[in-house]
Design a protein that fits this description.
It contains 15 helices and 15 strands. The strands form 4 sheets. Strands 4-3-2-1-5 form a 5-stranded antiparallel β-sheet. Strand 9 (about 235-240) and strand 10 (about 240-245) form a beta hairpin. It is about 35% helix and about 15% strand. By secondary structure, it is of the alpha+beta class. It folds into 3 domains: about 5-120, no CATH class; about 130-255, no CATH class; about 260-440, Phosphatidylinositol 3-kinase Catalytic Subunit, Chain A, Domain 5 (Orthogonal Bundle), CATH 1.10.1070. The protein has helices at about 40-45, 75, 85-90, 105-110, 120-130, 140-145, 150-155, 210-225, 265-270, 280-290, 295-310, 365-375, 395-400, 405-415, 420-440, and strands spanning about 5-10, 15-25, 35-40, 65-70, 120, 175-180, 185, 195-205, 235-240, 240-245, 250-255, 255-260, 260-265, 320-325, 330-335. Helix 4 packs across helix 5 (about 120-130) and helix 14 (about 405-415) packs antiparallel against helix 15 (about 420-440). It is globular, with a radius of gyration of 22 Å.
Length: about 450
Amino acid sequence: MTHVCTLQLHAQGVWHDVASVRLSGEVADGWKAKTYSGYAIDWAFTHAGATDASALCAGWPVGLEPLQLNHWPVFLIDMLPQGFGRQELLQRIGLSPVAGVPADWQLLLAGAGNPIGHLRVKEAAQWLNANAGAQRGFTYEEVAQRGDAFSEYLASYGLFVAGSSGVQGEWPKVLLTRAKDGLLYLDHTLPDELAVQHYIVKFGRGTDRQLASILRHEAPYMHLAQELGLRVNGPLMLRKRALFIPRFDRVVQNGQVLRLAQESIATLTGMPGFEAVPTHDQVCAALLRHCTDPQAEVLEYLKRDVANLALGNKDNHARNTAVQRDFKGQIALTPLYDFAPMYLHPDGIARRIRWEGNDASQPDWGRVLDRVCELAKQVPSKGRQKAAMHLDRAILIKEMKAMVPVLQRIAAQGEAMGLEPEVFAHLRPSLLARAQELTALV
């Protein structure tokens, strides 16, 4: 088994070999193994200094400087299948579905051939092509029902995870693309010129009543997010126990598919692994440092935290928020995703990312604003070596207060806006409390 993998990046309709990652530690150490990474020389000279979509991540500019770490690069960890995807692929490559960290490298070389974003591991793409099976389209109804033909197709070729489920998480998910014939195909089996709409399809699992409620609420939650002024991609579609989520890392233009660079805030903050999380303070510092419009992105991030607290979305881990980078130098938060009433989860999920010394699930928003404005002063403005960045606190307050009437409206009309009675009754006090907190902001 090779100890080197090649990173490919999609640009101008072509996959480019842009970098390599070599294990200098042991394979058995999994993602915790030491690594030596470097950009390809031709790519380094052509795109020297770039942190836009030409780079593997915003924190490692294109160039000849190697990246030496005591673990895998976090952007590589982002491509490692997790949850149901991990279990299915481990079985597909002949390993135990509960194989731990020692299986990570082998899993990467098979499972990172078609992940979210514009990167892939070349060796995994080759494995995927060699094991892809036949191409076949299905109707929305066949997918939603998980009918025999659809289920057998996935099971026969092991495609549920390998290339069509390059998505992390515990819910069964599959990447499907609607073609010009109106049918849905496993994403990696459909040529770009035939693609019309790309989806992540999330399936309900088991018979747990609370898990079913979480899935049913994800579509109305996205509507509530839009009402609250958050950045959303578009409506979600629930058919039976299948949630069709339009992807925002794929854009179909003139018969071609544009793949957008996407990196989690785990990568943006350099936080390896799956259990460790940054603080909100660390995330805001990274947004200030890397984003094109820091004021807009910090505001969006703050509003999302208000919404998470108001609507009981406790699962705010480091891979449930991400940024996008384009080839024009724009870096910004992606549209919102994985926004649901996760307080319902039967395992009991605690709020993951918190404000330093100011949280307990009820942060003092005045202190939060003081903190982000203080962080801004510590970040040099781009293009001006000594000038400190400035956040306009008054604008942050104005825009956060704009959420108040919407929070109050949801607290009054939540059922009419898609919340089921039990969920609405649980959330109403939290909605009113957040509205009161924002009203008091000065």
